[in-house]
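The record is kept unedited without comment:

——
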Amino acid sequence: MQQATAGKPKPSASSGVLPVFLRPGTIFLWIFLLVMAFLTLFPVLVAILGSFKSNAELTAGATILPKTWHFSNYVEAWKTANFSRYTWNSLFISIGTTVGTLLVASMAAYGVDRLRFVGRRTYIFIQAATMFISVGPLVLHPQFRIMVTLHLQTSLWGVVILLVSAHAATYFILYSFVRAIPRELDEAAKIDGSSMLGTYWRIILPLLGPGLGVSALFTFRAAWNEYIMPLVFTMSQPKLQPLTVGLSNLRYGASAAAQTHYMMAGACLSILPILIVYIFANKSFMQMTAGSLKG
C-alpha cells in the first residue's frame, strides 16, 4: 500500500487555490479602498474645477468641468482678499505654533520619562484628559481674558501661545519616541560632563527626527486650519487676520453678490502651503509608519 501510494504524484500545493488578488476578501478590500478614496478626493476635485468657473456657472452646478477656464479667478482672489498679507499672518501663526509646540512637547516628554517626581502620573493623566475632553468655544473667553492681562490680545503672539499650550497629542507622540531611546546615552553624556539640558539638545533632540517630522506636519496643519481663535483675536485688527478668516472677505463683492468662484480659488490657494509642508515631512511620516509595523 505504501509503495502504491508513493508511486502516485502528489497534488500541487497551489492547485485549486486562487491568486491573492482574486480572492473575495482582497477584491472587497480594494473596492472599499477605492470608494473611500473617491469620497475623499471628489470634493477636492470639485473645488479645484469650480475655482476655474464663472460665478454663474458655479452657482448653476450643471457640469463638473468648466465650459471656459477662468484662470483670472486666482489673480482676482489674490488681489481682492489681500492674500499676501493673510498668507504671512497664517505662516507666522503656523510656524510659530509648530516650533513652540515641538520644543515644549519634546522637553516635557524627555523630562517626564527621565525624571521621577511627585505628581508625574497626575501630569500624564491631565495631558491625556485634555485630548478627550473637548471644551471648544467655552474656553475662548477665559483665554482672551488671560491674553488681555498679558497685553497680547491685539497680537498674533497671543494666538500662538494658546495654540502651543494645546500640545497633548504631540507630547504623547514624542513621549513614545523618547522612551525608545536607551538611557545609556544619557549616562554616557553625564560621564562626559554634559548637563541634562545639553543631553537633550545634543543627543535626544537629533534622535527624535522622525517623531518631530510627523508632529510638525500635524501641528502645522492644525494651526493653519484654525479659524475660531484667530477670528476672536483679530476682530478689531483686520490686518492680523490669517487666510482662514480672510477668505470670508471674498464671499461678497461690491454689489453684495456672492462670489463663490473667488472663494473656491482662494481655498485652493490656501491648500498649497499644506502640500509643501507635507512634501518635506513625508519622509519622516513614512519612517514612523514603517517603524510601527516592525515586530
Summary: Residues 260-292 form the longest helix (33 residues). The CA atoms of residues 170 and 207 lie 16 Å apart.
